[in-house]
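Hi,

Apologies if this is the wrong queue. I'm a grad student, and the batch job for Ferrous iron transport protein A from Dyadobacter jejuensis produced an output file that my downstream script rejects. I'm not sure whether the problem is my script or the file. Here is the sequence I used:
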Amino acid sequence: MSARTVSQLKKGEKGIIKSFKDRLMSLKLLEMGCVPGCTVRLDGSAPFGDPVCVNIGGQYCLSLRISEAATIEIE
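Support response: The file is valid. Your script probably expects a header line. Output copied below for reference.
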């Protein structure tokens, strides 16, 4: 069974970043503060579901494409 990702969260759900599926995308996400062990919460999404607004560690919101959110594995 594959790991759950941020793209699979429902509005208001939380997860803890475990790892990344894409090495190149992980560099971009790390620079934006998405580090393993950090709590993420899905705050909302655009009318057609893409992009999504993800709260990072209760500090700030980050807008991500669904394809980007799908590379962040959570527990």
